[in-house]
Write a structure and sequence with these properties.
single chain; 75 residues; mainly alpha; 63% helix; elongated
Length: 75
């Protein structure tokens, strides 16, 4: 027999409402979508979505942080 676990997630009310409307239009509940997402995480052994490449400003900040870490290690 399969057991189930309840997951509670804090989400902005507006995001929840908009997501529920979109999902309802395609015949899914928020719970259905979360179940599908988690099954894909397991199947793909990672996030089942494409994450975007950081923009120029973010990449520069990341490189600056790496340089600071390298400089500290070099001491």
């Amino acid at each position: 027999m399969t057991t189930s676990t309840m997951i509670h997630v804090r989400v902005d009310n507006e995001v929840n409402t908009q997501a529920a409307e979109v999902l309802e239009a395609i015949g899914l509940s928020v719970s259905d979508a979360v179940r599908l997402f988690l099954k894909r995480v397991v199947a793909e052994q990672g996030l089942p979505i494409e994450l975007k490449v950081p923009n120029v400003e973010t990449r520069a900040a990341m490189e600056e942080s790496r340089a600071m870490i390298r400089a500290r290690r070099a001491r």
